[in-house]
Amino acid sequence: MQRHQFNWEIRPKSAQGCVSSCLLFGLIFCALFWLTIKFYSIVFSLVMTRLGIAPRLGIPLIITVFFGCFINLPLYLVLQCQGRRYYKFLPVLISLTPGSYIRSYIGLNVSGGLIPIVLALYQFHRTQPLAILIVMTIVALISYFFVTVLPGIGIYLTFSGFWIVTLIAVLASMIFIAAFTEMGLVTSGVARLDVPVAFAGGVLGTTIGGDLLHLKDLHVNRVASVLSIGGAGLEDGIAKCGISALIIAEWLPVVGELFSFN
């Protein structure tokens, strides 16, 4: 009798606790969702402004980025036919001879590779090309030593290496843009040239030093899967390094002024 009474009393409390937990979880989820939307909207508008992207391209760019993470454009094919392998570089049309098949290939992800690289190359037209080349070279040399190569699997930029590469891209862009400004070598009409230079140098530097220079270490001939440059989409080191460098370069002077004692 006492046992039955104990169970009867605890059920309403359990139901009440479940409802409270669900409400708390819902509030936390809504708050995080709102903060995420707010954060990404700020970042997106900042990227559009600093990289010189026309406002009318905003919606098409979002759609392309969303669906592009599922698309890998083939750059290098490893084909096999009757026990022999042959290769195609930058295949425009993939035509297979009878009895042959694609064993593996290296691709370029649209969201994580193609779009950041195209936007980075566009900055050569808008900003200071020499500054981008210098920052790109510095980032490429440093990122070369901070990646982890897993033969047959992929190339990964370490967590500490990611932040080192990003901060170096930011600082190098600020230093060289300031120097070129003093020498009168900057392009007029573009505000905060160091921001797009940091983005372009970060993207192109990690692409060259982190990925392209390490392709030989992947041993593509032994791979039976797809290897994709920028395959993680916006979470890949190429896009993430460029966007992070852009954000840090944008806000670092503001933070410096807040903590300045002058």
Residue share in helix: 55-70%
- Total domain count: 2
Major sheet summary line = 4 strands, mixed
Number of helices: 7
Overall 3D form? globular
Strand order of the largest sheet: 2-1-3-6
Keywords, separated by commas or semicolons:
4-stranded mixed beta sheet, 262 residues, 7 helices, 60% helix, 6 strands, alpha+beta, 2 domains, disordered N terminus, two-stranded antiparallel sheet
Would you write up a description of this structure?
The strands form two sheets. The protein has a four-stranded mixed beta sheet with strand order 2-1-3-6. A two-stranded antiparallel sheet has the order 4-5. The chain is about 60% helix and about 15% strand. The protein has two domains: about 1-50; about 55-65 and about 105-260, no CATH class. The radius of gyration is 25 Å and the shape is globular. Mean pLDDT is about 80; it is low at about 1-10. It has helices at about 1-50, 60-70, 110-125, 130-145, 160-180, 195-210, 235-260; strands at about 70-80, 85-90, 100-110, 145-150, 155, 225-230. The longest helix has about 50 residues, at about 1-50. It has about 260 residues and is α+β, with helices and mostly antiparallel strands. Helix 3 crosses helix 6 (about 195-210).
